[in-house]
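Bit of a strange request maybe. I'm writing a small parser for structure token strings and I need a real example to test against, not something I typed by hand. Could someone generate the tokens for this chain?
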Amino acid sequence: MKILVPTDFSDYAKDALIYAVEMIKVHGGGEIIMLNVFPHPNISPYVYDELIGNVTEEIKIRTLNKLKRKWQSNIKGILKKSDTVTVSFKAEEGQIVDNILKTAKKSGVNMIVMGTKGAGKIKRFLFGTNATKVMERSECPVITIPKMAKYRKLKKILFITDCNRHELDSILDTINIAEIYNAYLEIIYISEDSTENAMKSLEKIRKLVEKKSSYGKINYEPIISDDVTDAIEVYIQVKKVNMLAIATKKRSLFNKVFDKSLAKELAFHLKVPLRAFHR
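Reply from user aminoacidic:
Good idea to test on real output. This should exercise your parser:
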């Protein structure tokens, strides 16, 4: 298991790091890659390229040292000597989202875990937006950790389906997670149609899943609502869900959920981690 944890050194990024460490421990160990992306140095274009390169290298060295200090302070008391968790540090210059995706691909990570808010109103908006963009474009699963979402052992996972066969691999991956934690998996279909028609669509997904998995702790349920966000939030509260999972590719639901203000409502205001699969 290899997890990339982008950080802006905020408390939200700290929560994401702790979450990633706890997850990797449950999976039997692995590697954490801490990444910070810093902007291009604001230097006059008339300065020699060699000097610009020296400044960039100095920033990178300082950033790597800061990453190491943050690792030591943030995971204090979390790791035991018996835990097989290693860490590496990366500092990259340039655009945040592009560097996160490039590092994830180059390093061959299994997932990206990142906070959805940074420090201060401006950074909070920018980092939240970056998290959404990473979810949309990443080739590996992305877990976003919202404010105040402290790590808790997964007991119930919610997968929101669009009843699209392209979601099958994402559902099976979610089942694998549920099996590791011995957790219950709720698969819901939110529709404005009748309960009967929604159940028929959901039944098709159930049959596809049962051909591939015999996991017994799965519940399928249609939800009739014209407000996707509200339906999700209510379900999470009533069912005491620990994690929300959703596929992002070839589905209309993701576009509904992450369209304009709805993106802010879910990606920024959820109180549970959001795991996004992009296939």
